[in-house]
Amino acid sequence: EAQVTQNPRYLITVTGKKLTVTCSQNMNHEYMSWYRQDPGLGLRQIYYSMNVEVTDKGDVPEGYKVSRKEKRNFPLILESPSPNQTSLYFCASSYVAPGLTGELFFGEGSRLTVL
Amino acid sequence: GENVEQHPSTLSVQEGDSAVIKCTYSDSASNYFPWYKQELGKRPQLIIDIRSNVGEKKDQRIAVTLNKTAKHFSLHITETQPEDSAVYFCAAKWSGTSYGKLTFGQGTILTVHP
């Protein structure tokens, strides 16, 4: 089954405790991206990756890191989480960059709470 | 970069009525405009998209129109049904140097009353 898998789905942590949200896709997609969803603000892009070892900032990259060492995985790293990073996070992938072909497939989301 | 404004933030209609959601974008170089539907507690899913070389696209009860001159695009849902109730997001993809950036609007909560 084609899917984008995120883990953990739910996490409560404390300020400053490093955490990683994993994202894996099994569709051999080149493009992967992270979004955060906050009420009234929609989906805001954090980082995206056009292919292995190629990453770039989205609209709200501050406080986040990513890596793309393998095609299927695109982890989101919060080195020192703060309460303003409490949000619902979505990982997404598509065959190539959105608009060239196909659609963006989203994972089920990871709800993160930083105390 | 791109900025996308979406209106209205909430929309309530009776079953069978039409619903229209509008988005404006700032960068005239944007060339791809998808619409996503997010049901409660679920992930966003693509429902329709349009490219800048097309003015209108239809898929059964949904349609999207694009006005490049005015830099706005709209989602039209006809004969609405309760299962159309969801949050709808528009988005615009910038064709500039940051080729992978996809900017979303703030979302519209659509409620269809039986």
Which characteristics define this entry?
heterodimer, A: 115 residues, mainly beta, seven-stranded mixed β-sheet, 0% helix, 50% strand, B: 114 residues, six-stranded mixed β-sheet, five-stranded antiparallel β-sheet, 11 strands, 55% strand, globular
What does the radius of gyration of chain A come to?
13 Å
Secondary-structure element order of chain B, N to C: EEEEEEEEEEE
Span of the ends, CA to CA of chain A: 36 Å
Low-pLDDT residue intervals, each spanning 5 or more residues of chain B: none
Approximate helicity band of chain B:
under 10%
Q: Looking at the structure, what is the overall shape of chain B? A: globular
Please estimate the helix content of chain A: under 10%
Element pattern of chain A in H and E: EEEEEEEEEEE
Secondary-structure map:
The complex is a heterodimer of chains A (115) and B (114).
Chain A: E1 4-7, E2 10-13, E3 19-25, E4 31-38, E5 42-51, E6 54-57, E7 65-66, E8 76-78, E9 87-94, E10 105-106, E11 110-114
Parallel strand pairs in A: 2-11
Antiparallel strand pairs in A: 1-3, 3-8, 4-5, 4-9, 5-6, 7-8, 9-10, 9-11
Chain B: E1 4-7, E2 10-14, E3 19-25, E4 32-38, E5 45-51, E6 56-59, E7 62-67, E8 72-77, E9 86-93, E10 102-104, E11 108-113
Parallel strand pairs in B: 2-11
Antiparallel strand pairs in B: 1-3, 3-8, 4-5, 4-9, 6-7, 7-8, 9-10, 9-11
